[in-house]
Amino acid sequence: MLQSVITLSLLVSAVIASPTRIPKRDGHNADLTWISKDSSLPKIMLYNTGDGTILSGSANGRLDTNNYGGPIGRLTPETLIESVGEVLDIAQIAVVNFTGGRNGAGSANADSDRFLNISMDAHKRLCNPDSDIVGAVMIHGTNTLADTVFGVDLTLNCSKPFVATGSMRPNSALSADGPSNFYDAVRTAIHPEARDRGALIAMNDHLVSAFYSTKTNGNTVSTFLAPDQGYIAQFMSGQPYFFYSPSLPKARNYFDPFKLSSPLPKVDVLYGHQGFDADLLYSAAKNGAKGIVIMGVGPGALSTAASKAAEDLYTQGVITVASFRPYFGLSVPSPETEMIISSGVLRGENARIQLQLALGAGYDFEGIQKLFEGEVRKAVYNDATTFFNGTVL
Hints:
Pfam families: Asparaginase, Asparaginase_C
CATH topology of the largest domain: Rossmann fold
Strand content: 15-25%
Protein name: asparaginase
Shape: globular
Helix content: 25-40%
CATH architecture of the largest domain: 3-Layer(aba) Sandwich
Active site: 53
Number of strands: 15
Distance between the termini: 69 Å
Oligomer: single chain
Radius of gyration: 22 Å
Signal peptide: 1-17
C-alpha cells in the first residue's frame, strides 16, 4: 500500500535507475531492458539517434532557442522518459541506440545507413510475428527527421505504428515542445487506429504522414506539414483524433532493406534556378553519382541545357529525376515517356531517397519510371483525357 502513494517522479527515477527486465516470448528481443511501472502495459521501442533539440539544453538561459547544445542540460533517452513520466502510465519502453556519425554534430550528418539500420532492426524486433511489441517511436534531430523517417517508411513492411518525433525548442526553453511531442508519439505508437498508415510524425499537436511531410519552417514549432495532403490527426489532452480511416499513401513503394546493395548508390540533388549551369550534372556524374534529382522550377521544369545534359547522361547510365521546387504541387510527367523521369508527388529530398533505393534494389530505367510516375499517369492519362496524343504507361 505504501508503494502506491510514492510520487510518480520518485517511482520513475527508481525504475530508470534499475530498469525492470521482463522475460520475452521471442529471441529477437531478449536483449532489451524495459523501463516499466506496470508489466501489463503495451510495449514500445524507442529508437534514439543521439541527436536533436529534444535532448538538448542551453547554458544561456530559458530564452535561448538558437545557440543551445553541449553537455549542460543535455538529456539521455532515459532522463527524457523520466522528465515525461506520464508515458510510463501508458506504456513500457525499451531504448535502442543508433548514434552513428559525429557525436553532437546534429542530424545534418545522418545518411542512408541510419534509416536502413533502424528499419532492419524494426523488422526483426517489431514486425516479427511472435513479437509482443505494439509500436515504435524514434527521437531525431528535426533538420533531417523527415528524410530519415521517409526512408524508414519505404523500407519497413509492418502494420504496427512507427512514429518519429523531436522538438524545435530545447528542453531548457520556456514552453519547450519536446515533452508534449514525446508523449504524443508514445500515445500514437500504442493506439490501434495508428496501425496500417505507414510511418508518422508527431509534432505540435498533430500527426502527419511521413511519406508526404516536409519541414517548412526552420525556427517555429509549427513546421512539419504535408502541404497538399494535410494532417492525419490532431491531439487533444494527449489523445489523437484521427480524421480518416487507416490507409497507406497511394504512391508509396516498398523496398526490402535486406536485399539492397550496400552502400546505396550515390544520388545528388541540384537546385533549379534561372541561369542554371548544366555542367553541374556532368560534375555530379563524374564524382560518382548514379542518379541526379533536379528540383526544377515550377512543377519540375528544366532549362533546355539541363534537359540536354540529362538526356546525354541517360545514354551513360545516369538517371535524372525532375522534381518540383515549390512547397505545394507535384511533377506531372508528359504524355510520352521520356529520358527524364518526373518525381510525381515526391519533393526533391524524398525523390533522392527513393531513387537511391530503386537503384540499390536493381530496378532498370523503365522500372524506376513506373515507381515515380505510375500513379500520376493513371490519374492524368486515361479514357477521359484522350485529347493527349502520346504513349501512356
